[in-house]
Design brief:
This protein has 929 residues and is an alpha+beta fold. It has 29 helices and 32 strands. A 5-stranded antiparallel β-sheet has the order 2-1-5-4-3, sandwiched between helices. A 5-stranded antiparallel β-sheet has the order 7-6-10-9-8, sandwiched between helices. Strands 12-11-15-14-13 form a 5-stranded antiparallel β-sheet. It is elongated.
């Protein structure tokens, strides 16, 4: 076969392959379906074939042109234009085809066919010689391929023209098609890739495909589809590809998963189309993937939601139902079938009224209509099963839209237990000791007997009345606010408010309110306790706290003041011994002594106020004490004040410090006298009574039991409520500042509290006042009064260790003891005392210790030194016994104590008493231990 025949056959073959797919006429990238994108991919394949065909035609054309160049002897026979020009550029030859072409194109002359810029290209053409130079020109929209070559023998350049207009247009169309297809490939909303079928390797991928699988184009072309496919999905891919290779299928689509390098999974819809060569298996295939991860997630969520809703519906404890707007039952749960007794086939299409008796059907029908009109409704009714049994239910319904149509969605809750609970609750409400009520629309609808007992009102007097009727005006806003919060279910914390009882008295209650339902409607349930007594007790407790704080302050001041008075008294006693009888200076010194003793009385009042004094309680006959004081008390009263004694006829006994009880009675009588400036009657009464829990509940730290009552009443001017609230407080007085310190009644309070009792005050303006003192009663044998010790010599020769931190007092006590023959070792604090005890080699017969000292207390010093001097006696001194250990020892009689301030003779007598009691016991010295 000739070479030209081979060329023709190849061109025909390429043209045939190109016609196997329709040509691309236009592209629309927006909203293009996946099928159209696949068609465009096929067009890309077709245009690739066409490009190959046109390249082959161009090659053939060039060969033909060279052939014509060699046919110089037959130029007139050539169907294409031929021109020849000499070295000056003049046309020296042309053929008939050239003239026809000029006329056909409407050109002026043959020179119009010459390429532009020929003068500049002539040297290049001559240099090429007979090899020639190809030029492309366009004349009147006709494109020519001009082959120019130089013929030396003719000294001319011959130009051979070939019309390639159609070929160029086809090439341009192919290039444009390629550009559009490339744009589609790169900008497609789906991933597109060319894959080598045998290896699965990616040859070319677009950007979308890279984004879907999370790899760069370079990473994609370096791997294959097997490496990024989820292992569970790979086997199916390979099976489909095998079918493609075997010719069983032409293409396939499926959903599969890619495994990203971060471990996540992406779902895609994959479409695979082979790239065919005639008579050959597909070496390559086109893969188009669409990311459907979000859609799969939505589908999965919908599936899970449906599963969840089905499970939720079936797990509901009550009845679930769904009716359409025609009243037909569309959906129900298993409970509905079990409770109703109807099988599913019978339930489908049943109406709401089918499950209720005649008298309740209108009620159900009205509730259904209310759902479709207003959006929701609820009703209580007896649900009738197929067998005729009935069960009380609370039904709810809400309007919903399914499939564009309105429907009724609701639940039924078995309220059998609730109804039983309501009956039980009604029984409890009727017997509860607290106040319980129910309010609807701001009105009382239920009141229990407990409410009646606390307020004094009967239920018939309050039902239907405003719920704020009994609340005092200043608390109505609070109660209203709490009710609203309870209805909104925001808060149900208890709160306090004042109310007015039927008798007109004001009381306190602690109340809690909650939202509830009563007889099928919303309501407020409230319950409260009467805390009037508690509030009074709380007030007393606060007052007791104030008294305690002031008492501590007063006791501290008394302690320091006692040290100062002790120094004064010792100086005064010493000075009196040195002044001769009848010396006028002695009168002044005695005046100082009397003032000092009055100051001592004041400090004892301060100690009583602070409950820090050391009491010496014993069993005493209260009536006898009152009678013994009656004469003295009578002298304190004015002539126009009558003293009346109303004493219990029995023998009432209390354990109390008699001197302190005398102080209490004296202060009360003086206070009563001052309250009767115009005269009157003062009554002192005694009684023994038993106080139960309810009686003592009004007082802090008071136990129930038998008490001795001592009452002092007057017919004076009385007190208002404000004065009574403060009358027992220290320094509070209604008298002018020149007439009283305000310590009298507070001293009474302190003494009585320290003795284990309590005080009650009653008074009205213009109707006098009564102070009642309650002391614990006892059943004990009366203790005889301590005998007055006989006079004894106060001299001594023993060794005494004195520890006192007040320098003046320490020096004076040391001088007093030395003057009476004692050997005195002194120290100002604990460390110094221990050092003296360690250093001293002789006996120490007595430790004279202040209770409160720097570094360590007197009790701690005694404990340390007693180990070295076990027979040593200890005498404590203080303004008040601060140390608890010392206090206990003093009360149980194991420690000796002397109260500051003290007279020198009192100290000497106490020292002598302790030392004489130890005469029979040898006191070892330090060296003997």
């Amino acid at each position: 076969m000739a070479k030209d025949d081979l060329g023709a056959k190849s061109a025909d073959d390429l043209r045939t392959r190109a016609l196997r797919r329709p040509a691309v006429t236009g592209v629309n990238l927006e909203g293009m379906p996946l099928e159209d994108i696949q068609s465009l991919v096929y067009e890309l394949q077709v245009h690739q074939v066409e490009l190959e065909m046109q390249n082959e035609e161009l090659r053939l054309t060039q060969e033909e042109t060279r052939k014509v160049a060699h046919l110089a002897s037959f130029p007139q026979l050539c169907p294409s234009p031929i021109l020849e020009i000499d070295g000056t550029g003049a046309i020296t030859f042309y053929n008939e085809a050239a003239l026809k072409t000029v006329r056909k194109l409407g050109l002026e002359d043959l020179r119009s066919l010459l390429p532009g810029g020929l003068d500049e290209t002539l040297p290049a053409i001559r240099q090429k010689g007979d090899k020639g130079l190809c030029l492309e020109i366009e004349k009147q929209n006709v494109i020519f391929m001009v082959h120019a070559h130089y013929t030396p023998q003719w000294q001319a350049v011959r130009l051979y023209y070939t019309d390639i207009t159609e070929r160029k247009r086809a090439k341009r169309a192919l290039q444009e098609s390629e550009r559009r297809l490339r744009a589609i490939f790169e900008q497609a909303a789906v991933g597109v890739a060319q894959v080598e079928t045998a290896t699965g390797r990616f040859i070319e991928v677009n950007q979308k495909f890279c984004e879907i699988v999370g790899l760069s184009p370079e990473e994609m072309t370096a791997t294959n589809f097997m490496a990024i496919t989820l292992p569970e999905d790979l086997e199916v891919d390979l099976q489909y590809l095998q079918k493609l290779l075997n010719g069983q299928i032409r293409t396939f689509s499926r959903e599969k998963r890619y495994l990203l390098r971060d471990g996540s999974i992406v779902w895609v819809n994959l479409t695979v189309s082979p790239m065919w060569n005639a008579g050959e298996a597909p070496n390559y295939h086109i893969a188009v993937v669409e990311d459907i991860t979000e859609r799969k997630q939505v589908e999965n969520n919908l599936r899970l939601e449906k599963l969840f809703s089905d499970m939720a519906i079936e797990s509901l404890p009550g009845l679930f139902y769904l009716f359409d707007d025609q009243g037909s039952l569309l959906r129900w749960n298993r409970n509905f079938e079990e409770v109703s007794g109807y099988p599913a086939a019978e339930l489908a299409g049943m109406k709401p009224q089918d499950f209720f008796l005649g008298q309740e059907k209108p009620l159900i029908q009205a509730a259904v209509q209310e759902v479709f009109l207003k959006g929701e409704s609820s009703v209580e009714a007896d649900f009738i099963a197929k067998d005729g049994s009935k069960t009380p239910y609370f039904f709810t319904g809400k309007r919903a839209v399914l499939g564009g149509k309105p429907c009724l969605l609701g639940m039924g809750i078995d309220i059998t237990a609730r109804q039983q609970a309501e009956e039980t609750l009604k029984s409890l409400i009727a017997t509860a000791p607290i106040g319980i009520y129910i309010i609807q629309k701001g009105k009382f609808v239920l009141i229990n007997p407990g409410f009646e007992a606390i307020t004094g009102y009967r239920s018939s007097e309050l039902l239907g009345k405003d719920s704020l009727t009994l609340v005092t005006s200043e608390y109505r806003a609070l109660v209203k606010k709490q009710a609203l919060r309870a209805l909104r279910k925001e808060d149900s914390s208890p709160y306090e408010y004042q109310f007015t009882s039927k008798s007109g008295e004001t009381g306190w209650v602690m109340e809690t309110i909650i939202s509830t339902r009563y007889e099928g409607k919303r309501a407020v349930l409230g319950y409260f306790m009467d805390i009037t007594s508690h509030k009074k007790l709380e007030k007393q407790f606060l007052q007791a706290q104030r008294m305690e704080a002031v008492g501590r302050l007063a006791g501290g001041l008394a302690h320091d003041f006692s040290n100062v008075l002790a120094v004064i008294i010792i100086y005064v006693e010493t000075m009196l011994k040195e002044v001769r009888e009848g010396d006028p200076l002695g009168l002044h010194i005695k005046g100082v002594k009397e003032a000092a003793h009055r100051a001592i009385s004041l400090t004892r009042e301060l100690m009583a106020l602070g409950r820090r004094q050391l009491l010496q309680p014993r069993a005493i006959k209260v009536n006898a004490l009152v009678r013994d004081m009656a004469e003295m008390l009578g002298r304190l009263l004015d002539e126009d004040v009558e003293l009346v004694l109303t004493l219990d006829p029995g023998e009432i006994v209390a354990k109390v410090d008699p001197s302190q009880l005398e102080q209490v009675l004296l202060n009360l009588v003086v206070n009563a006298r001052d309250a009767m400036p115009q005269g009157g009657r003062l009554t002192i009464a005694t009684d023994e009574i038993f106080l139960g829990k309810s009686a003592v509940s009004q007082h802090v730290d008071v136990a129930p039991g038998r008490y001795v009552m001592l009452a002092v009443s007057d017919t004076g001017i009385g007190m208002d409520q404000e004065t009574q609230a403060h009358i027992l407080e220290p320094f509070y007085t209604t008298k002018p500042s020149s007439e009283g310190s305000g310590l009298g009644l507070s001293t009474v309070y302190g003494i009585v509290k320290q003795s284990g009792g309590f005080v009650e005050v009653w008074s009205e303006l213009g109707n006098g006042a009564t102070f009642k003192i309650f002391l614990p009663a006892i059943q004990e044998t009366l203790e005889p009064p301590a005998p007055i010790p006989e006079s004894r010599l106060l001299q001594g020769s023993e060794t005494i260790l004195l520890v006192e931190d007040v320098d003046d007092l320490r020096k004076l006590v040391q001088d007093v003891l030395k003057n009476y023959g004692y050997t005195v070792l002194t120290a100002s604090h604990g460390s110094e005392a221990l050092e003296i005890g360690e250093r001293h080699r002789g006996p120490i017969h007595l430790l004279l210790l202040d209770v409160v000292l720097p570094q360590m207390s007197g009790a701690q010093i005694a404990e340390r030194l007693k180990s070295s001097y076990p027979g040593t006696r200890v005498l404590y001194m203080s303004g008040y016994p601060e140390d608890a250990i010392i206090h206990r020892k003093l009360l149980d009689g194991t420690a000796a104590f002397i109260q500051k301030p003290f007279a020198p003779t009192a100290l000497l007598a106490k020292v002598r008493e302790l030392l004489d009691s130890a005469k029979r016991t040898k006191t070892p010295s330090r060296t003997e231990i």
